[in-house]
Specification:
The structure is a single chain. By secondary structure, the chain is mainly beta. It contains no helices and 11 strands. The strands form 2 sheets. Strands 2, 4, 5, 6, 9, 10 and 11 form a 7-stranded mixed beta sheet that branches. The protein has a 4-stranded antiparallel beta sheet with strand order 1-3-8-7, with no helix packed on it.
């Protein structure tokens, strides 16, 4: 069984910074892409940033230059540093990991962590 546990959300003023962390645990053979998504009230879940096992990253246009995704493969962890936060960044943030357990691969999701940016 595989679990993703997120931490690091919270309340911050516009212009501030937050750091999110997501750790995968369980019967993990290998982890491929890891990503952060977010879902604001009344909106669809959207991809924020994704990073490959080799460290190549891509970002949504709305966060490029402000957010940085990184990963620690030894700890099965993905991080996201969020700077210059805007009220429109307010959402529940979810991590996703493409994990192969040795018997098969699938996407796993974390439970979500709330990020609230006040104006």
């Amino acid at each position: 069984q595989v679990q993703l546990v997120e931490s690091g959300g919270g309340l911050v003023q516009a212009g501030g910074s937050l750091s999110l962390s997501c750790a995968a645990s369980g019967s993990i053979f290998s982890i491929y892409a890891m990503a952060w998504y977010r879902q604001a009230p009344g909106k669809q879940r959207e991809l924020v940033a994704v990073i490959t096992s080799g460290g190549s990253a891509n970002y949504a246009g709305s966060v490029k230059g402000r957010f940085t995704i990184s990963r620690d493969n030894a700890k099965n962890t993905v991080l996201m540093q969020m700077n210059s936060l805007l009220p429109e960044d307010t959402a529940v943030y979810y991590c996703r990991a493409d994990i192969y357990t040795g018997t098969g691969g699938q996407n796993y999701w974390g439970q979500g962590t709330q990020v609230t940016v006040s104006s």
